[in-house]
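The records we work with from here on pair a chain with its fold. A complete example follows; check for yourself that the lines match position by position.
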Amino acid sequence: MLKIGEFAWLGQVTVETLRHYDRLGLLIPAHLDPLTDYRYYALDQLPRLNRILALKDLGLSLEDIARMLDNNIEAGEIRHILQAQQTELVRAVQASQQRLARVEARLKQIDQEGKMSEHEVLLKTVEAQWIASVRQTLSSWEQEVFGPTLSGLFDQVGEYLNRQNVKPVGPGMALYHADRLVQLSSQRGEPDIETALPIAGPMPGSDLITIRQMPRTQVAYTVHHGSFAGLFPAKQAVFAWVEANGYQHAGPICEVYLHFDDDRQANQDSPRHVTELQLPVTKA
């Protein structure tokens, strides 16, 4: 018989580890002194300890290890446990590879621009949302044309909801439709814009107002604090991140107006505006 310390030394584990395995029923001492409660182990228990350590090295939980050490377990169940662990390890490797790609993309951006980007771009999932919207192709991106037209479109949606006694359930948003990302990133051509207010559920529309559900989607997003004139650099940061991280755009970029400064004098140039930019993406 070996004392617990001697057995721990042979197995290259700590005494506390052996005590823990005993409490779980994974490795029960060969003998327990009835007077001192001191644990003693036999040499023929070393193979079981080594198997526990080998399975633990695979990343398996002690609960799964206990099941696998059960003499009555079938080969199919062992295979199922190992396949589940294989899936989890593949997922972890993919997550690490994606994190590495983001680090490399940030290093590349710093090399190109000589500094960190002012806009942090992240990924998230946006849940499905019903909206009331109006869509129109504008004549120009110029602010003196674009700003008043956008404001007028929001007024149309808001007035329609008021007549229907329906209140928006979140901040307004503007969606910019384009077949190609370059159309959005260059702001060339005529902007195809949809202004929308989120609503609780379906309701009747009109010849002008469309009621539809935006699908659940993954988006690359950033938050911009300040005037609307500063939104273009923020969009460029999102587009650059998408390209650098191996994604492609999968829908219209969306401006969500989290806070709109109502100061009419400040108008478009207010530093107190808070806008979230969302670009639906899929892995390229």
